[in-house]
Design the sequence.
């Protein structure tokens, strides 16, 4: 049987999104060890300047709340 692949995207490692993505990955592996789970920072696939602007803006917003 073919293994199933799952892609989990998050934004920036210093976010709750990253922690939630890692928890999902861990849970999925505990349910089915044959799953291929890829947990990736979506910002890594943007323009480096846009990545920095988005990251800094995101961090500024969450620190103000």
Sequence:
């Amino acid at each position: 049987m073919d293994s199933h692949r799952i892609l989990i995207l998050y934004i920036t490692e210093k976010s709750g999104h990253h922690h939630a993505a890692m928890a999902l990955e861990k849970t999925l592996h505990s349910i089915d060890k044959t799953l291929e789970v890829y947990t990736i920072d979506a910002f890594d696939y943007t323009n480096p300047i846009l990545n920095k602007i988005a990251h800094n803006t995101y961090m500024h917003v969450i620190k103000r709340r």
